[in-house]
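Below is how a single chain appears once it has passed through the pipeline. First comes the sequence as given, then the structure the pipeline wrote out for it. We keep one example in the README because the format questions we get most often are answered faster by looking than by reading.
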Amino acid sequence: MEPVGSNRHHVPGGEGDRDRPFEPPGFAVRHTEPVGAAEYDCPDDTVEAVRRRIETEPRGESFGNGRFVRNLFESARRRLAVRLVDQDVQDFELTIIRPEDITP
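Resulting structure:
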């Protein structure tokens, strides 16, 4: 995540097929959605919610940090969509992940 302004962070997206040569064998099989298909902004309070969520996750023998963060991000995207589905929003609001989008 890259800082953007004073109170937002930017989750950079990929460039589509240009990034695919860097995917390891079997990557597409393990991932249900393209990585970096869009770009998202996260206000500071969202970043703090993510940090708290990561810190409180139990780390057993099968814990995988990359897998956990990917699942957390995919869940946040789904919760963002559900939160906005019945609202009249502007385009830029479709890419702002809020603390309530982070799974408890």
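DSSP finds three helices and three strands in the chain.

See the next section for the split statistics.
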